């Protein structure tokens, strides 16, 4: 069974600080996606990374796919209260099925 | 654009009752999916459909049934509700299997 482990499970920091959350697996994925989910809503796709070592930036968010395509990280610079939410990673297996991590719940305090 | 809509938003069922969770998409997507999300766990795929009349099991199909009579609708049926089915259920759709999935707002189900 393929598993994606996200860490930390919960993170609470002050506005303006930097943070990194991780998504790790022993399996190789053809691509990896990061989603953000707000209470009472479904996940919304932030980014898809495909190539080992790939780095993508979305304003203050930087996403990296590991060289071996088994892990990924999300770095947020100068966090804002609007970044609060549940961050989920999901890897696409060889059957194009999404394997989901349990998520990192992020709270940015003003 | 409505995107993916789900009804109801919240429901309480007694053990053994049945219900249908509704899902509709207006994007003319071929693929539709049902997931459940439990606290502290990743989303689990229950069933998916590649087009009208075609459905297939996901990772956790037991206790559920689906049908896909039209491109737009993909209802999920619970025949004999059990406490283990307490969860938040998300419907999603995508044009192709490899493309982005768009999620509905979810249905929160409590089985007592």
Describe this structure as you would to a colleague:
- The complex is a heterodimer of chains A (110) and B (112).
- Chain A is mostly beta strands and 110 residues long.
- Helix content of chain A is 0%, strand content 54%.
- In chain A, the strands form two sheets. In chain A, strands 2, 4, 5, 9, 10 and 11 form a six-stranded mixed beta sheet that branches. A five-stranded antiparallel beta sheet of chain A has the order 1-3-8-7-6, with no helix packed on it.
- In chain A, a hairpin with a 6-residue loop joins β4 and β5.
- By secondary structure, chain B is mainly β.
- Chains A and B meet through β5, β9 and β10 of A and loops of B.
Keywords:
heterodimer; A: 110 residues; mainly beta; 5-stranded antiparallel β-sheet; 11 strands; B: 112 residues; 7-stranded mixed β-sheet; 4-stranded antiparallel β-sheet
Approximately how much helix is present in the residues of chain A? under 10%
**What series of H and E elements makes up the topology of chain B?**
EEEEEEEEEEE
Structural class call of chain B reads: mainly beta
* Strand coverage percent of chain A: over 45%
Using only CA atoms, what is the Rg of chain A? 13 Å
Q: Name the poorly predicted regions of chain B.
A: none
- How would you describe the shape of chain A? globular
Mean pLDDT of chain B: 95
Greatest contact between two chains: A-B, 20 and 18 residues
Helix segment count of chain B? 0
Helix percentage of chain B:
under 10%
Order of helices and strands of chain A: EEEEEEEEEEE
- Tell me the β content of chain B: over 45%
Taking the sheet with the most strands of chain B, its summary is:
7 strands, mixed
Shape of chain B: globular
Number of strands of chain A: 11
Q: Classify the secondary structure makeup of chain A into a structural class.
A: mainly beta
Spans where pLDDT lies below 50 across 5 or more residues of chain A: none
Number of helices of chain A: 0
What about the largest sheet of chain A?
A: 6 strands, mixed
